[in-house]
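A note on notation is needed here, since sequence and fold are reported together in a single record. The reader may check this reading against the record printed directly beneath this paragraph.
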Amino acid sequence: MAILGFLLLPAIVVTLAAFNGRAILSFPPETWSWRWFLKALAYEDFQAGLRNGLIVTGWASSIALVAGAAFAIALERYEFRGKRPLETVLLSPLVVPHFTVGLGFLILAAQIGVARGYSVIVACHVVLVLPFVLRSVYISLRNFDRRLEDAAASLGASPGRVLVTITLPLLRPGLVSGWLFAAILSFNEFTASLFVTAQRTQTLPVALYNYVREYADPSMAAVSVIYIAVTATLLTFANAFLGLAKVLNIERAR
């Protein structure tokens, strides 16, 4: 409980600071007000950042889902040369600092003459979130009963039909949770995004960074509270309908 309280303490402090009635970020609040939430929702840079973030998140998480599922199936079911190095490369974003990835994509884009548009940001985010999709789908595959596929094939189903009617439906928890984690991580990604976004394509975390360089009011705290609420809601929904404990191999599937 002490560890849990220590982890929740920053979120509690930020939440209380968001309701501060004074025009400066301070704790504890002396007066209470909702106005910073209204200002955060009405601020044009935040609105543009939210729009850009949703576009990048939608594309990055969807591409990562398709690629991650394909790689997970290949790594779990087949033996081929270079399998271990490939797995190491795919999981390397878990240990490589994100600013290194962002700087690498910035240099690459400059060398090939590509502007810092959505394509560069999406590619960068796909690399960063791919390990989480790979892990999620891989765990679902480990809990998968392949005799169901064999039974469908023995009844005359083609490999494509087995994939669509048997494999993918049974992998749905891993696929949905993998996409969900990818979406959350992509939407909240800041370090790498700082290198690959421009003014017109900046995502919400980058917009927040630019805001805090100029202002010190509780609007930042208000946005953080909205972040926490939305993320907690999504994870609660995923746990209730998908069983994240089983997907992440915290408990054995029955």
Remarks:
- Residues 44-77 form the longest helix (34 residues).
- The two ends are 29 Å apart (CA to CA).
